[in-house]
Amino acid sequence: MNADLERIVALQKLVSAAHDAERALAAEPERAKALDARLEAVRQRVAAAKERLTENQNARRVVEKDVAVHQGRLSKFREQAMAVKTNQEYHAVQKEIAFAQGEIKTIEDKILELMVEADDLTATVKRAEAELASEQKAVEADRRGMATELAAMKSSLERIAVERAEVVRALDPHALAVFELVLRRRNGVGVAQARDGICTVCHVRLRPQVFNTVLRNDQIIQCDSCQRILYYVPAAAPATSDSVSQPTQ
Ligand SMILES: [Zn+2]
Question: pTM for this structure?
Fold first, then answer.
């Protein structure tokens, strides 16, 4: 391959690699935010479960106070029952006693119900807390992974910059100017592989004469349609890079 064409193809790889790394770097804050959100969602589940348990405990305190009130009334009625003088008074007090007992029974059933519910809610809190602990571990691992990736991307960008400078230094300035112009106009892709008579980037068929010249890889030729610099990759043959292969159909 023509040395400058080879350099341009190499340069394109470096440009694309740098572009990918920069895009990944730019996406990093968003990824970090997504991790925070993941953790926050589980934290909210824990908080909600605790809130429900607290509500249950508060409700139980309220009904326990009620039961104490009814028990107080019950013992008062029992004292009164000892001191009644008439049959009518006796029945009235017995009625009050039965009512208080009924109230106490209802409240005690309610307390039992709240206790059973409290067991479930406590289990839910524990599960949510365990989930939070494991999610915290997973998120920390992801953060460490991201930090490693970030460092790798930064050093790869530095390496790319060095290599790019070397290639640019060796490249013919005119060829470089052509490449950079197309690069700017064509969305960061300044070269195109020609295959089966077609520019593989814009998919336009090349004139046969143009394609035949591209097959030789010995000069800088641009696609008539997209202006990208064309190059040809011989069909997979034993690695003798300068062997001239037959075009494949
Ligand atoms: Zn093209």
Answer: 0.69
